[in-house]
Structures are given as structure tokens and as C-alpha cells.
Specification:
Helix content: 40-55%
Strand order of the largest sheet: 6-7-8-9
Distance between the termini: 18 Å
Order of helices and strands: EEEEHEHHHHHHHHHHHHEEEE
Number of helices: 13
Shape: globular
Radius of gyration: 22 Å
Structural class: alpha+beta
């Protein structure tokens, strides 16, 4: 079992393993989680101004092997298996273009070509959504980049576009919210590496600077005529909360633009399920439960559309139930994102987790 230990960088010794990735201000991985440190890496961390890190102690536990599927289970799986709703899929060529394009944007924020590149990526994402009339998303299948800021921007853009489509926004509005998602964190290029990589809690001054990133993002695009006022306002307000507790302006629901309400849900979810220098990734289930608990902060319509758009347990995936069984997912129910229909691999029992009251005490671990 791996445990985390907080250490000053100057106390590190060669051979220790890092328990979080180290990234530069553009989100590029400099040192991966689990990397075995040497003198050069330790010296580099100090030069980057990273004065403390988490290290690993212990070893990863191996995942249990899948149990054999019984004849009864095979029969029920074949009888009940229902394909998932059409999901966004990115072809290899589109994934390569998107990956290259998003890196260009964040590396060339003042370039005249930045706008055209952003529009091109949004168009690629629109084509991916239209290609099979996608109405859902499995975030684990996107994999546009290994670098956090780039992947996060594409994830937020894609999630937001599907949520916007679910809400009935026009194709142009769906496309525009994709542009918002791609650019919402561009202001982080102005935040020092030492703050972006700090493994512990930010102090008040550091947090105040980090909170400026949405304003920086807005200022970097507001004078570009190609970006509509709605896009710019969505970027500025993506950290606002409907109860007025957000930033940078602290406005409440009636003054938050529709794009920002959707972006906020997508941004929080993707941040929760992604490992960062200061935290481990939450499971998709835990992240969804946290989103569902934020009724005082997030727009209910955006939250409902998000929950109806996400597929956490794709059909055919193997899950472990709280009753100790392994099971195969055979059908997803849009209104019960955490509770699909599953079949126990050994017993062959069918568990309709979302609608059968007899399964109310069973959850997916």
C-alpha cells in the first residue's frame, strides 16, 4: 500500500519516488508521478522554486484478477446487453490535430494564429460530435494529451459542448462554448511554476494570485474581435458560483452568463478526476457525488444536463459491487449515472441498481 509523505525538497534523497507529477506553467509534465528521483531531478526542482513535494512510501497494490463468467451470467449478459448512447469519439487524425493545436495555443497566446487555431479545434470537436450524433461522453476515452493543462482544456471543452447540446443550445452556441472551454485556463500561463506545482495548500497571497487566472484569460482574449462577448464572459466567469461565493467578481446566479454555468460544472468535474501536484485524482463516482452535492453553488439545469450526458461505467466494463461480487455492466440508465444494470459474473444475478428497490443497499465501489 502506497502512503504519501510530505517533505522539503532539500531533504530529498536519490531513490525516493515522487507521489505527484511536476508540471511547468503550460501544463507540460516535467517529472511523472512515481518517478525515481536522482540528484539532477532534485536540483531541478529547487531551481524551479518547488520547495516541498509528496513522496511515495510502499508499493502499489495489484488489482484483483477478473473472476470467470458463469454460464448463467453469460446468458443474462447476452439477453440484457444494451449498447451505450452515442458517445463522442475522436479519430486518430483529429486527436493529433487537437493535441498539436492546443499546445500551440498555450505556447503562443499573443500570436495572430492563436484565434484560427482555437476555431479549428472547436470545428474538429463539432465534427466529432456530429459524426455519430453523439449525446454522451466517456471522459476516459478522449486521451488527447498526457499534459494536464492541454488535456484539461480539451476535456472541459468537449464536456461543455455535450452538456450544451443536451440543454438544447443551437449548434453555434455549442461551438462557442467549446471555444470557451479551450481558452478558459489560458491565463495560467502567467502563474509562476512554483505556485502551479505546490503540493500543499496555497497561502493567502498565492491563492489570490491563482484566482487571477480567469481575469488573465479574459484580458488575453477580450480585444480579439473574433471572440464574441459571450465567449469572453464565459471565460471570465467560469469560477463564479450561483450563491455569489465564486470569483473574480463574486456575482450570483442572475449575473452569471449561461456559458459559464455549464463550464463551471465541466471544469470542476474534470479537475476532480485528474491528478495534480497537490492532490490525487478522485474516482469518477466520488467526483459525481461531489458535483451532486453542490446544489448551492452550481446551476441546477447545467448539473442535470451534465449528469444525463456522462457515462461513467461503459457497457461491458467490469465493476466490483459492495456485496463482494464482480459484475459486468450491461445497460446504462441516463437518470441513474452511478447505478447501471449489472450482472454478477459468478452468480449470474441481475442487479438493476437504479430502479430495483432490492438493490438499494448495493453500490459500485
Amino acid at each position: 500500500m502506497i502512503k504519501r509523505k510530505y517533505m522539503r525538497t532539500r531533504q530529498l534523497k536519490p531513490g525516493m519516488k515522487l507521489d505527484h507529477p511536476v508540471v511547468d506553467r503550460l501544463g507540460r509534465n516535467l517529472v511523472a508521478r512515481g518517478a525515481e528521483l536522482d540528484d539532477y531531478m532534485i536540483d531541478s526542482l529547487l531551481k524551479l522554486g518547488i520547495m516541498s513535494v509528496y513522496i511515495q512510501e510502499g508499493e502499489e497494490e495489484e488489482n484483483p484478477e477478473q473472476v470467470p463468467t458463469s454460464p448463467e451470467a453469460e446468458k443474462n449478459i447476452e439477453r440484457l446487453r444494451t449498447e451505450d448512447r452515442a458517445k463522442v469519439t475522436l479519430s486518430v487524425s483529429i486527436r493529433e490535430r487537437v493535441s498539436t493545436g492546443i499546445q500551440f495555443i498555450y505556447n503562443n497566446t499573443t500570436s495572430e494564429e492563436m484565434v484560427a487555431t482555437t476555431e479549428s479545434i472547436a470545428d474538429d470537436l463539432m465534427r466529432s460530435i456530429k459524426s455519430n450524433d453523439a449525446i454522451a461522453i466517456d471522459i476516459s476515452t478522449l486521451k488527447t494529451s498526457d499534459e494536464y493543462t492541454f488535456k484539461h482544456s480539451v476535456d472541459v471543452a468537449t464536456i461543455s459542448m455535450i452538456v450544451a447540446k443536451q440543454q438544447g443550445l443551437s449548434p453555434e452556441e455549442v461551438r462557442e462554448i467549446g471555444v470557451c472551454g479551450l481558452l478558459h485556463d489560458i491565463g495560467k500561463t502567467k502563474i509562476p511554476n512554483a505556485i502551479l506545482n505546490k503540493p500543499g495548500k496555497l497561502d493567502d497571497d498565492e491563492f489570490a494570485l491563482m484566482r487571477q487566472h480567469s481575469t488573465y484569460s479574459y484580458n488575453m482574449i477580450k480585444d480579439r474581435a473574433e471572440f464574441s462577448p459571450a465567449v469572453c464572459l464565459g471565460v471570465l466567469q467560469h469560477h463564479e458560483k450561483i450563491n455569489g461565493s465564486g470569483y473574480p467578481m463574486g456575482v450570483s446566479a442572475e449575473k452569471i452568463c449561461p456559458y459559464a454555468k455549464i463550464l463551471s460544472v465541466a471544469d470542476i468535474y474534470d479537475a476532480l478526476v485528474t491528478e495534480r501536484p497537490y492532490k490525487k485524482a478522485y474516482s469518477q463516482r466520488d467526483a459525481v457525488e461531489m458535483i451532486m452535492s453542490m446544489t448551492m453553488e452550481l446551476d441546477i439545469t447545467a448539473m442535470k444536463s451534465f449528469l444525463e450526458s456522462m457515462i461513467l461505467y461503459p457497457v461491458d466494463s467490469i465493476v466490483e459491487l459492495s456485496n463482494g461480487e464482480q459484475a459486468r455492466v450491461v445497460k446504462n440508465i441516463p437518470h441513474y449515472i452511478l447505478r447501471p444494470v449489472v450482472v454478477g459474473l459468478t452468480s449470474g444475478n441481475v442487479y438493476n441498481l437504479g430502479e430495483d428497490i432490492n438493490c438499494a443497499n448495493i453500490i459500485i465501489l
